[in-house]
Write a structure and sequence with these properties.
- It contains four helices and twelve strands.
- It is globular.
- Helices cover about 15% and strands about 40% of the residues.
- The protein is an alpha+beta fold and about 230 residues long.
- Strands 1, 2, 3, 4, 5, 6, 7, 8, 9, 10, 11 and 12 form a twelve-stranded antiparallel beta sheet that branches.
């Protein structure tokens, strides 16, 4: 793995799930964007991101080696204890349908920090309704139990319309950094993000979304264009 000492990212161990911030959430629904428009863009985030990470979380936990007593007694250095190249992991439903496919160029586990790094990560997931979620990034970084996952470098997550849904149901999120907390169902980024839907796009300096509270906050310089919702004929 390349040296990232000059990266602006904070140390991985210091990134903990944020505590509820009621005041900040109340402010999120103000400004030029109405709560209705924001909800339209963010309501698919749980399905999009949490669903896409389900396979990744399961696979990382299953494939993280448990250090033996001898290794635990040794002084650990920041060196991988195993490496996998050109891997592909596929899971299926009980009926045999594709549930998820996780691919990557290189995966390494670091026992000193209990972190897993995946270079060139690509994911395709299908939920029980047939909705397809695609995800990709130059790099994914996860803690040992996959409760905290970073996607960095051209992170892109796409939620395609499901059966019976129109083009406006499509949602795509792009950014250089997306951080996901799978237990608390939280998504955040301290870097700019762009959200695309069938009705337009929105750009923001940062993103903080809590699925448990159904509240999202777009901060920094927020701008975008949305098409008006067609009114039903009288």
């Amino acid at each position: 793995m390349t040296d990232r000492g000059d990266s602006p990212e904070p140390p991985f161990a210091e990134l903990l799930p944020l505590a509820p911030q009621g005041g900040a959430r109340e402010a999120a629904v103000g400004g030029p964007w109405t709560a209705r428009a924001l909800d339209h863009l963010l309501r698919y985030l749980p399905v999009l991101l949490m669903g896409a990470l389900a396979a990744l979380s399961w696979w990382l936990v299953k494939n993280t080696p448990v250090p033996g007593d001898t290794k635990a007694a040794q002084a650990l250095r920041h060196e991988p204890d195993y490496t996998m190249r050109g891997f592909s992991v596929v899971s299926y439903t009980p009926s045999g349908a594709l549930r998820s496919r996780l691919e990557g160029d290189v995966m390494q586990h670091y026992p000193d920090t209990d972190t897993i790094e995946v270079e060139g990560v690509r994911l395709r997931a299908v939920d029980e309704t047939g909705r397809v979620t695609l995800g990709s990034a130059q790099r994914a970084l996860s803690n040992g139990d996959a409760t905290q996952v970073r996607l960095t470098g051209g992170a892109r997550v796409i939620r395609e319309p499901g059966p019976g849904e129109g083009p406006s149901a499509r949602l795509e999120i792009r950014g250089e950094f997306l951080e996901l907390f799978t237990e608390t169902e939280r998504v955040r980024s301290h870097l700019p993000v762009t959200l695309f839907t069938g009705r337009g796009e929105m750009r923001a300096g940062s993103l903080d979304y809590s699925h448990l509270d159904r509240i999202g906050q777009l901060s920094g310089r927020v701008s975008g264009e949305l098409l008006a919702t067609p009114q039903a004929a009288p």
